[in-house]
Specification:
single chain, alpha/beta, two-stranded antiparallel sheet, about 40% helix
């Protein structure tokens, strides 16, 4: 009864009969207590130590970690669930159940111990580690490779995203003013009517036009801080063991993921944990290494986020990274004209951007209306293409720019290209809203996966980075940052800056920032891509500085994170082979 009763005696959730029963049990226990208490305590501690030592990946603590198969064997891929407390510091908080998956090493116990692989996102799921390990078996030899579907991600019972099946809809008719966001969704976390679509490092606005930027910030402020409809939604109010309500959105940050990782480590009886983090996974690995440095075996951080948890820092870093990517794209055209579809890359790129500023990149809707492509969405398209670390996105970017160029006299081809980009972003339930409804509504407003080709929901990033990073702004504060930086960056950089500021600078939950990531004692291998579009190379340098005992491996490549070896179509397959050999050497031998 003592073990099962989570609520303290006298709490409103405990009736008189329960309290009387516990009191009677207390009397009985006192009456039967032996005089040799110290001996009994020692025996209890010894038995507990034996149980801890007995825990392995094959036989974990079933109160915490349960595999879905009985009697797993070396080499198996096994799925399971991990039970954690919403607030590890409060035993009365609700329990959460998270999905996990592990590929067991061929030798058990695993010679190198367990390694968490986090593929970024933060939507990296439990299957991430299996995919990565199978593609790079030499790296992961001797490890139990595992991954987790972290709090709020798809696959768990409680997820951050809205559900397209139940929340999204296609209106039969719209009002006199035309269709609005609320005509397409009933989700509490969808953006307010009149909000331009937003995604990771972009916003559907003209990044040079103050009226567009102000509207974006005002609408996001309404969504996050003024109405807080999403934050106060009943969906997030979870009842604890003693009747208290907990807001789930306060407990999705990376510091809680670090605690969940260590719960897993203890459940399998491991002394040490290794981590391989990609993109946001570098943030996860760095936070874990900062909080639990004594538990780290080996750690690789590939495509690094900033080790300084500040919203403004991330916005400026993303702006710089996207400008560098455009510069690299144009320089590669000059260096390798055979792979570039632009005759004069710099001039044609600038001309295409100017056409977008003037509203001259258009396509016709079903009703015959002229629909413009904004500079922000053009930059989002280029960003999503050149983010591919194979380098194959670069020629695709130049092909698209050539079709949009004023040098192209085929107006039909230009309009079809604009339509192709709009089709990728303006989608609800697989239907192109710009074409069917004369309005661009997509996953960046409905906050649901809508079968889109290009757009993203961004809500998961907003929720996690909103609490992970310091910085809460008023609209005028945000506009001040935009004004201070709009001349420092190109159109790609300013568009990224706006997307970051709008996305999570108005987040309503009070931030619980991670401490700056720094542990001189941890020998981290930091991997930086010189022209990474999503996580700039400067952040990799800063991460190496934060972990001063580590090393920085630089790949002079393009796209986001370093590609895996073995693809002859990669940007520089020979260099990738050499770099990956160094990573493999570190993972196997330190």
């Amino acid at each position: 009864l003592f073990v099962d009763s989570a609520c303290p005696i006298g709490s409103p959730d405990m009736d008189v009969l329960q309290m009387l029963t516990i009191a009677l049990c207390s009397i009985a226990m006192v009456a039967s207590t032996r005089s040799d208490v110290s001996e009994g305590t020692c025996l209890l501690q010894t038995e507990r130590g034996k149980r801890l030592q007995a825990r392995t990946s094959l036989k974990p603590d079933r109160n915490v970690l349960q595999w879905r198969v009985s009697g797993p064997k070396a080499g198996d891929t096994i799925d399971g669930t991990l039970k954690v407390s919403m607030d590890p510091s409060d035993p009365d908080s609700p329990d959460l159940v998270l999905q996990v998956q592990m590929i067991l090493a061929e030798t058990q116990p695993a010679p190198n111990g367990p390694i968490l692989v986090h593929c970024g996102g933060p939507s990296s799921g439990a299957s991430c580690g299996a995919r990565v390990a199978k593609s790079s078996p030499g790296h992961y030899k001797g490890y139990d490779v595992w991954s987790i579907t972290q709090r709020g991600m798809q696959g768990n019972n409680l997820t951050l995203l809205c559900d397209s099946n139940t929340d999204s809809m296609l209106p039969e008719t719209c009002g006199l003013g035309g269709c609005k966001v609320s005509d397409f969704t009933t989700c509490d976390c969808a953006l307010p009517d009149g909000t331009p679509q937003i995604g990771e490092i972009w916003a559907d606005v003209d990044p040079r036009k103050e009226s567009d930027v102000r509207t974006m910030f005002e609408k996001m402020s309404d969504w996050g801080m003024k109405t807080a409809k999403c934050y106060t939604s009943e969906k997030w109010q979870i009842e604890g063991k003693c009747g208290k309500k907990w807001n789930f959105l306060d407990y999705v940050g990376t510091q809680y993921l670090a605690q969940d990782i260590d719960v897993f480590r203890k459940a399998i009886g491991a002394d040490k944990m290794s981590v391989y983090g990609y993109s946001y996974g570098t943030y996860v690995g760095a936070v874990y290494a900062t909080v639990f440095p004594e538990n780290i075996h080996r750690i690789v951080l590939d495509g690094n986020m900033s080790p300084w948890p500040q919203k403004n820092q991330q916005a400026l870093g993303d702006a710089e990274a996207n400008d560098k990517a455009i510069a690299k794209l144009l320089l590669d055209c000059r260096a390798d004209p055979a792979r570039c579809s632009l005759s004069n890359a710099e001039e044609e790129y600038m001309a295409v951007v100017e056409m977008a500023h003037q509203g001259k990149l258009t396509a016709r809707t079903k009703s015959g209306a002229v629909f413009p492509l904004t500079v922000g969405m053009l930059m989002a398209y280029l960003q999503m293409k050149y983010t591919s670390n194979t380098g194959l996105g670069f020629p695709q970017c130049t092909q698209t720019l050539a079709k949009l160029s004023p040098n192209n006299t085929n107006q039909t081809a230009r309009s079809e290209t604009v339509g192709m980009i709009l089709d990728g972003f303006c989608v609800v339930k697989g239907v192109p809203t710009w074409y069917d409804y004369d309005v661009c509504v997509g996953p960046g407003q409905t906050m649901a996966q809508e079968g889109q080709a290009l757009g993203d929901t961004y809500f998961e990033q907003c929720a996690i980075w909103g609490v992970d990073q310091a910085g809460l702004y008023r609209v005028e504060d945000a506009l001040g940052r935009w004004r201070a930086n709009k001349e420092k960056f190109g159109d790609a950089g300013v568009a990224a800056l706006i997307g970051d500021i709008a996305g999570y600078s108005f987040w309503p939950a009070t931030a619980t920032p991670n401490a700056p990531m720094v542990r001189a004692s941890v020998p981290v291998l930091v991997v930086g891509n010189l022209f990474d579009t999503a996580t700039g190379y400067t952040w990799s340098q800063q991460m190496r500085q934060a972990f001063s005992k580590g090393a920085l491996l630089t790949w002079q490549g393009v796209g986001h994170t370093m590609p895996r070896a073995g693809n002859p179509n990669n940007y520089d397959p020979v260099a990738i082979e050499k770099c990956q050999a160094l990573v493999r050497e570190y993972m196997q031998n330190g």
